Amino acid sequence: MTATATVAPAPANSPGRVLFASLIGTTIEFFDFYIYATAAVIVFPKLFFPQSDPTTATLQSFATFALAFIARPVGSALFGHFGDRIGRKATLVAALLTMGISTVVIGLLPTYAQVGVVAPALLALCRLGQGIGLGGEWGGAVLLATENAPPGRRAWYGMFPQLGAPLGFLCSTGIFLLLTEVMTDAQFLAWGWRIPFVASAALVFVGLWVRLRITETPDFQKALDRDERVKLPMLTAVREHPFALVTGTFALVATFVLFYLMTVFALSWGTSKLGYAREHFLMLQMVGVLFFALTIPLSALYADRFGRRNAMIVATVLIIGFGFVFAPLLESGSDLGVLAFLALGLGAMGLTYGPCGTILAEMFPTAVRYTGASLAFNLAGILGASPAPYIATRLGERYGLASVGGYLAGMAALTLVALLAMPRRR
Fold this sequence. Notes:
By secondary structure, the protein is mostly helical. Helices cover 80% and strands 0% of the residues.
């Protein structure tokens, strides 16, 4: 009599584990990204650049901020290659490590007063590392969610990694507010600003622990079983899916422009031109980000019911309209007006951001999905986010805030054209 050996099937990812793994990773990544964005306004111009001209120092700091968006397509190509070749899980772990190490090192860098021009050079190098890590993180997190989603719930699942953006922003802004409350400005500039960067190491360990406990996504496992992998995912995505890449990129340009106008530019302009105290404006921004977090799930519900493309078209039309009230609200001179500005702008941001990950994932086949979705997302970052604070500052100083609203409306009109050119999908 012989015993029959049975092989237990690979454990499936539970919905809770999948959604938490996709959410925690992007929350950590965006926390790291936003503490840099905040420091680029209130710390780096004073500590990492010459002080002969404060405006020039701020613009130089914004230039290092933009470097990450240039590096993000490199990250999408690098991590996308391995994500489409060896799997989503291992690639997500590597992306999180890249981002985390770069962020911690920023908190240990010497300043311009200590090492001169070496300081901004090292800062730029770490910023590139942040960009490469986030370039690989976002696409993998979206695929982890959407490729595990049940029928009819893909936009809802794809919304969870998107929630990492407002949660990361709230955490990063909250810690800067706490630090400014418990220490003097001199202490904050001397060493306090380093705490969020170094402390992010603890968050990275949490993210790694969660992600190492998940299994591969069903879609990728099916692609392995059918031997559908391609040798060079980047080449295949560019050569065989150029229309998806181009329309996917421009469909997200307004999303990036809007967010970095509402966060980096608004903080800089509010504290330098409108006379707001840094702590006060950050508190107003935190209230505004609550609307960002609220409208992300609303947009996902709408997208699952009426379609991702329709959801983003509605959001983009609202962004165009917001461009015309941009200046009157921000320059209103009252907290109520500024809160309305932040609530409307960041609320519209949530409406466009919620379904954007799902719409990009659905534009590419499994074999090149990690690469294609990540590349389109990060190319949109180059066109939309990286120049936005710089262009807006220049426009605002030369032509007034109304020109900044016009810039936003114009970029949103470009996005609307791309969305209308997309094929309809059920």
